[in-house]
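Weekly structure sync, notes
Attendees: PL (lead), two postdocs, one rotation student
Agenda item 3: pending single-chain targets
PL asked that the sequence for the first pending target be pasted directly into the notes so everyone works from the same version. It is reproduced below exactly as submitted, 258 residues in total.
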Amino acid sequence: MSNILFTVENNIGILTINRPDKLNALNEDVLKELKTILSEIKTKKLTGLLFTGAGEKAFIAGADISAMSDMKAGEGLLFGKLGQTVTIDIENLPFPTIACVQGFALGGGFEMALACDFIFASSKAVFGLPEVKLGLIPGFGGTQRLARRTNAAYAKELVFSGRNVTAGEALTRGIVNQVFEGQVELMTGAQAYLTLVAKNSPLAVAKAKLAIDQGGQTTLEQGLGIEVNSFSGLFGSYDMKEGTAAFLGKRKAEFKGE
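Predicted structure, written out during the meeting:
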């Protein structure tokens, strides 16, 4: 792949958009490569995934405007659906995902970050959905996920104005989970969080993620049904037997994700 880097360190996947000369902007080729690599990553037994961009200037500065400028409605539909497919693939990974944002996360870049479970940011990170300034709207899920992560009124405020927000404002609004001083601290902090998660049952973490994500799109009653089915489905699993035995035996559990 010419635009994507993927490595694994201590069972943590690190996916990097590698177009620093273009501020890691998204075009059709990048999105197709992301779709391919995500289908492979989904099959791996990872503690979690860190999603970042090469260089210090940008996480992803948005979609490649030069590639979009001549698109017709039909081409725009296909491009938008491709971007949405990638964000859904990120969302559906069975382990925790963290967008590690340094520099600009604008337009499609912000939308990719919103598809992750968490957003960790450097103090210099900048977020925004500036599509209205181009005569467009967010098309990779931004109007939907931002409203769900914060609220509809705040999402409208950002989308209608196209204004950028700092990491500090994004933190107060619940968009960002943690802010770090610099890029090194950002990546170290994200890896530390996933290392903490790795002490628990990966099967239980996956079921908890499913219950929260799916339940959040339904009524409370339906969500409770999803939760109890996920809860009961863990009984009899190796991890449940190991976890309870370890607790009763006052020892460290050795989970297998089974």
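Discussion points:
- The mean pLDDT is 95.
- The longest strand covers residues 4-9.
Action: rotation student to compare against the earlier draft before next sync.
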